């Protein structure tokens, strides 16, 4: 016998104000410069990676997205060949373009899930948060959640 799952969503989001800065298209060297001082996460043909921006590959990874964060900002890069379409989200900031993000817990793939290849221990050593921009052009930013 099993118990019924609880009614309602598994993870309820909290709403938080933020400032959104659309940077636009950057070359990979420009994007790497913008990422200085952040922690980055991405999935490519070699698996899921969590690394300091200083350890990013010299060439764009074979990935569709790269997420990065530091104490004050979250970055989302949509990688398109040698360029990255880039945006910066600054949670709890009240200047610039104001948006409201839905913040909820996030997890990388399960240890045995092979959708993203092998997962390093770092993938499960952090608690992640998803910062979701709802609306006609939704986007998700990622950061390590405070413990």
Could you describe the 3D structure shown?
This protein has helices at residues 28-34, 121-125, and strands at 14-27, 39-44, 47-52, 65-69, 74-80, 83-91, 97-106, 128-133, 139-144. By secondary structure, it is mainly beta. The protein has a nine-stranded antiparallel sheet with strand order 3-2-4-5-6-1-7-8-9. Residues 1-5 have low confidence and may be disordered.
Classify the beta-strand content into a percent band: over 45%
| Biggest sheet strand line-up | 3-2-4-5-6-1-7-8-9
List the secondary-structure elements in sequence, H or E: EHEEEEEEHEE
Quick one: overall form? globular
Radius of gyration, in angstroms, nearest whole number:
16 Å
Number of strands: 9
Low-confidence stretches: 1-5
Structural class by sheet pairing and helices: mainly beta
Note the total helix count. Answer: 2
Report the sheet with the most strands, covering strand number, pairing sense and barrel closure.
9 strands, antiparallel
Amount of helix: under 10%
Mean of pLDDT: 85
How do the strands and helices of this protein lay out in sequence?
Elements: E1 14-27, H1 28-34, E2 39-44, E3 47-52, E4 65-69, E5 74-80, E6 83-91, E7 97-106, H2 121-125, E8 128-133, E9 139-144
Antiparallel strand pairs: 1-6, 1-7, 2-3, 2-4, 4-5, 5-6, 7-8, 8-9
